[in-house]
Write a structure and sequence with these properties.
Oligomer: single chain
Helix content: over 70%
Number of domains: 1
Number of helices: 7
Number of strands: 0
Structural class: mainly alpha
Distance between the termini: 60 Å
Shape: elongated
Strand content: under 5%
Radius of gyration: 23 Å
Largest sheet: none
Length: 172
Protein backbone atom coordinates (compact mmCIF):
# COMPACT_ATOMS: atom_id res chain seq x y z
CA UNK A 1 0.00 0.00 0.00
CA UNK A 2 1.36 3.33 -0.99
CA UNK A 3 0.93 6.31 1.27
CA UNK A 4 0.72 9.74 -0.17
CA UNK A 5 2.72 12.52 1.34
CA UNK A 6 0.58 15.21 2.93
CA UNK A 7 -0.01 18.16 0.71
CA UNK A 8 2.48 20.93 1.12
CA UNK A 9 0.93 24.00 2.69
CA UNK A 10 -0.17 26.58 0.19
CA UNK A 11 2.33 29.34 -0.09
CA UNK A 12 1.12 32.50 1.54
CA UNK A 13 2.24 35.91 0.45
CA UNK A 14 4.97 37.40 2.61
CA UNK A 15 3.72 39.37 5.54
CA UNK A 16 3.56 42.97 4.31
CA UNK A 17 4.73 45.16 7.17
CA UNK A 18 4.27 48.38 5.22
CA UNK A 19 1.38 50.53 6.33
CA UNK A 20 -1.75 51.32 4.35
CA UNK A 21 -0.64 54.83 3.30
CA UNK A 22 2.76 53.61 2.23
CA UNK A 23 1.31 50.77 0.12
CA UNK A 24 -1.52 52.80 -1.39
CA UNK A 25 -0.06 56.29 -1.79
CA UNK A 26 3.69 56.62 -1.30
CA UNK A 27 4.83 53.48 -3.15
CA UNK A 28 2.73 54.22 -6.28
CA UNK A 29 4.07 57.80 -6.34
CA UNK A 30 7.64 56.50 -6.09
CA UNK A 31 6.94 54.00 -8.85
CA UNK A 32 5.98 56.85 -11.18
CA UNK A 33 9.49 58.25 -10.86
CA UNK A 34 10.92 54.99 -12.25
CA UNK A 35 8.56 55.14 -15.23
CA UNK A 36 9.88 58.37 -16.68
CA UNK A 37 7.71 60.89 -14.86
CA UNK A 38 9.79 63.84 -13.71
CA UNK A 39 9.65 64.96 -10.08
CA UNK A 40 8.35 68.37 -11.22
CA UNK A 41 5.53 66.82 -13.24
CA UNK A 42 4.60 64.48 -10.40
CA UNK A 43 4.53 67.35 -7.87
CA UNK A 44 2.37 69.41 -10.26
CA UNK A 45 -0.01 66.45 -10.71
CA UNK A 46 -0.45 66.08 -6.94
CA UNK A 47 -0.92 69.84 -6.47
CA UNK A 48 -3.44 70.23 -9.26
CA UNK A 49 -5.22 67.01 -8.32
CA UNK A 50 -5.58 68.25 -4.77
CA UNK A 51 -7.05 71.57 -5.91
CA UNK A 52 -9.48 69.88 -8.31
CA UNK A 53 -10.51 67.40 -5.61
CA UNK A 54 -11.50 70.30 -3.34
CA UNK A 55 -13.89 71.85 -5.88
CA UNK A 56 -16.81 73.06 -3.73
CA UNK A 57 -19.61 71.29 -5.60
CA UNK A 58 -20.45 67.69 -4.83
CA UNK A 59 -20.35 65.26 -7.72
CA UNK A 60 -18.11 67.28 -10.01
CA UNK A 61 -14.61 66.52 -8.74
CA UNK A 62 -14.18 63.23 -10.62
CA UNK A 63 -15.14 64.87 -13.90
CA UNK A 64 -12.97 67.90 -13.17
CA UNK A 65 -9.96 65.67 -12.43
CA UNK A 66 -10.66 63.65 -15.57
CA UNK A 67 -10.93 66.76 -17.76
CA UNK A 68 -7.81 68.37 -16.33
CA UNK A 69 -5.93 65.08 -16.60
CA UNK A 70 -6.85 64.64 -20.27
CA UNK A 71 -6.17 68.27 -21.17
CA UNK A 72 -2.77 68.40 -19.46
CA UNK A 73 -1.85 64.71 -19.92
CA UNK A 74 -1.54 64.04 -16.19
CA UNK A 75 -1.60 60.69 -14.41
CA UNK A 76 -5.25 59.70 -13.97
CA UNK A 77 -4.80 57.09 -11.22
CA UNK A 78 -3.02 59.67 -9.07
CA UNK A 79 -5.72 62.29 -9.74
CA UNK A 80 -8.58 59.92 -8.93
CA UNK A 81 -6.83 58.53 -5.85
CA UNK A 82 -6.43 62.07 -4.53
CA UNK A 83 -10.09 62.69 -5.33
CA UNK A 84 -11.16 59.73 -3.19
CA UNK A 85 -8.73 60.42 -0.34
CA UNK A 86 -9.76 64.09 -0.10
CA UNK A 87 -13.55 63.55 -0.17
CA UNK A 88 -14.02 64.32 3.53
CA UNK A 89 -11.77 67.39 3.28
CA UNK A 90 -13.84 68.64 0.36
CA UNK A 91 -17.02 68.39 2.43
CA UNK A 92 -15.43 70.26 5.31
CA UNK A 93 -14.15 73.05 3.05
CA UNK A 94 -17.45 73.80 1.31
CA UNK A 95 -18.62 75.91 4.23
CA UNK A 96 -15.20 77.59 4.44
CA UNK A 97 -15.30 78.42 0.73
CA UNK A 98 -18.79 79.90 1.08
CA UNK A 99 -17.70 82.18 3.94
CA UNK A 100 -14.45 83.22 2.24
CA UNK A 101 -16.43 83.96 -0.92
CA UNK A 102 -18.92 86.06 1.05
CA UNK A 103 -16.00 88.01 2.49
CA UNK A 104 -14.44 88.47 -0.99
CA UNK A 105 -17.75 89.70 -2.42
CA UNK A 106 -18.50 91.86 0.62
CA UNK A 107 -21.80 90.03 0.98
CA UNK A 108 -23.83 89.57 4.12
CA UNK A 109 -23.06 86.34 5.87
CA UNK A 110 -26.05 84.18 5.06
CA UNK A 111 -27.61 81.48 7.14
CA UNK A 112 -25.72 78.82 5.22
CA UNK A 113 -25.63 75.58 7.15
CA UNK A 114 -25.46 72.08 5.78
CA UNK A 115 -28.63 71.07 7.61
CA UNK A 116 -30.50 74.00 6.02
CA UNK A 117 -29.15 73.11 2.58
CA UNK A 118 -30.28 69.51 2.96
CA UNK A 119 -33.69 70.54 4.29
CA UNK A 120 -34.37 72.92 1.40
CA UNK A 121 -33.06 70.40 -1.14
CA UNK A 122 -35.45 67.73 0.19
CA UNK A 123 -38.52 69.87 0.80
CA UNK A 124 -38.46 72.56 -1.89
CA UNK A 125 -38.31 72.61 -5.67
CA UNK A 126 -34.98 72.78 -7.47
CA UNK A 127 -35.80 76.34 -8.50
CA UNK A 128 -36.39 77.36 -4.89
CA UNK A 129 -33.16 75.65 -3.87
CA UNK A 130 -31.13 77.64 -6.44
CA UNK A 131 -32.89 80.87 -5.54
CA UNK A 132 -31.93 80.43 -1.92
CA UNK A 133 -28.41 79.02 -2.33
CA UNK A 134 -27.30 80.18 -5.78
CA UNK A 135 -25.28 83.06 -4.37
CA UNK A 136 -23.66 80.74 -1.84
CA UNK A 137 -22.51 78.59 -4.76
CA UNK A 138 -21.10 81.60 -6.57
CA UNK A 139 -19.30 82.71 -3.41
CA UNK A 140 -17.81 79.23 -2.93
CA UNK A 141 -16.72 79.07 -6.58
CA UNK A 142 -15.06 82.48 -6.32
CA UNK A 143 -13.15 81.50 -3.19
CA UNK A 144 -12.04 78.25 -4.83
CA UNK A 145 -10.87 80.07 -7.97
CA UNK A 146 -8.88 82.57 -5.87
CA UNK A 147 -7.29 80.03 -3.53
CA UNK A 148 -6.62 77.14 -5.93
CA UNK A 149 -3.57 78.61 -7.71
CA UNK A 150 -1.98 79.29 -4.33
CA UNK A 151 -2.79 75.76 -3.15
CA UNK A 152 -1.31 74.22 -6.32
CA UNK A 153 1.86 76.31 -5.94
CA UNK A 154 2.31 75.49 -2.24
CA UNK A 155 1.81 71.75 -2.74
CA UNK A 156 3.90 71.56 -5.91
CA UNK A 157 6.84 73.49 -4.51
CA UNK A 158 6.67 71.62 -1.20
CA UNK A 159 6.64 68.17 -2.80
CA UNK A 160 9.19 68.84 -5.53
CA UNK A 161 12.29 68.39 -3.28
CA UNK A 162 10.84 65.19 -1.80
CA UNK A 163 10.16 63.71 -5.24
CA UNK A 164 13.61 64.81 -6.47
CA UNK A 165 15.21 63.00 -3.52
CA UNK A 166 13.13 59.88 -4.25
CA UNK A 167 14.20 60.02 -7.91
CA UNK A 168 17.88 60.26 -6.94
CA UNK A 169 17.52 57.31 -4.55
CA UNK A 170 15.76 55.31 -7.26
CA UNK A 171 18.55 55.81 -9.78
CA UNK A 172 21.37 55.22 -7.31
Amino acid sequence: MTTLAPDAPASTPPDDKRGFWRRRLIDPLRAQLTRGVTPDRLAFTVGLGTACSLFPFLGFTSLLNLGVGVALRLNHPILQTLNQVLGAVQLALILVYVHVGEWLWGADTGAFTLSEVLRVFREETLTAFFQQFGWAGLHALTAWLVTSPLLVAIISFSLRPIFQRWARKGTA
